[in-house]
Amino acid sequence: MPRTKKKQTDKNFFTDVFDVARLIPVGRVTSYGAIGQYLGLKSSARMVGWAMHGCPKDVPAHRVVNSKGLLTGKHHFNPPEKMERLLKKEGVKVVNDKIVAFNEVFWNPSTDLELNETKPRKKRPKTG
DNA sequence: AATCTGACGGGCA
DNA sequence: GTGCCCGCCAGAT
Q1: Cβ burial A47-62 (10 Å sphere, 16+ → b, else e)
Q2: pLDDT at position A14, please?
Q3: Three-state secondary structure call for residue A54
Q4: Which of A25, A45, A75, A107 has the least C-beta neighbours within 10 A?
Q5: Does residue A5 surpass a pLDDT of 50?
Q6: Is A45's CB less than 7 Å from nucleic acid strand C?
């Protein structure tokens, strides 16, 4: 939604990233690129991760990792260990700062969200 | 204003 | 499968 003639990147970009991140279900994770792609930034995954720089507490940044499932952003948490700690707490296995079964816990906003949350989403990839 | 940086991602060797 | 290079775009110095 075109706010005004002004730069659209005023802060919408940030808020958008945060908004999507907040949509990440518990026990699931996503990648910066996935969020970026959902927002249309696709090739600007850096922007997404970088945007997390100002990620408020309301945003589960710990559920966001790089496309390899690596907890690359753990260094930015208050206690870096908090990231995997939170993930493990939510059921996400983490070993060596890496998400276990990343392909299973991976959550794609562009596909899993697909703008129809009101509908009973289809089968899940089965958590286990 | 120009330059360097950054919580990334994909392609090629 | 791993390692290196480029692109991407906005912020900070």
Answers
A1: bbbebbeebeeebbbb
A2: 86
A3: helix
A4: A75
A5: no
A6: yes
Scanning every strand, the nucleotide with its C1' closest to A11's CA turns out to be: C10
Residue spans per domain, chain A: 9-105
Is the Cβ atom of A109 within 7 Å of strand B at any atom?
no
Residues, chain A, total? 128
Residue A8: predicted pLDDT: 58
Give the rounded distance of the alpha carbon of A70 from its chain centre. Answer: 13
Its CATH architecture, for the domain A9-105, is Orthogonal Bundle (1.10)
Beta bridge partners of A95: A98
Q: Give the model's pLDDT for residue A116.
A: 53
Q: Looking at the DSSP assignment, which residues form a beta bridge with residue A99?
A: A94
A21 touches strand B (CB under 7 A): no
CA atoms of A105 and A93, how far apart (whole Å): 9
